[in-house]
């Protein structure tokens, strides 16, 4: 299926480009699923910039300004309350209605669906590529 999508959506007379790959729904889903299984950064930490409440599925935590926060990505990416059968690799998980799960993929200091800004420190180049794929 993956090969069929690439062949269908790529022009044989040109090299693959970042823009053409962005249109390949299954290819993107396989990349997201690979990153979910093997997050590029396993441990993230930061200090709270202000007091706030951090909510989980069943708890609320009072966080004070200056407290150290730490997140372990492999654990978060295998949350059974978010991902059905979280230990199974599903290449088409993020296709169609599954795209809603992209808001649960956190790397680059925010969800995959977020946009870089001064306040979230997401990678400014997360949606851009400058190399040609061959």
Mean pLDDT: 83
Structural class: alpha+beta
Computed over alpha carbons, the radius of gyration is 17 Å
Strand order of the largest sheet: 1-4
**Percent strand:** 15-25%
The helix count comes to 4
Helix content: 10-25%
Strand segment count: 6
Q: Sheet with the most strands?
A: 2 strands, antiparallel
Q: List segments where confidence is low: pLDDT < 50 over at least 5 consecutive residues.
A: 130-134
Distance between the termini: 20 Å
Shape descriptor: globular
Helix/strand order: HHHEEEEHEE
InterPro entries: Cyt_P450 (IPR001128), Cyt_P450_E_grp-IV (IPR002403), Cyt_P450_sf (IPR036396)
Keywords: Heme, Iron, Lyase, Metal-binding
Biased composition (Polar residues): 111-122
Family: Belongs to the cytochrome P450 family.
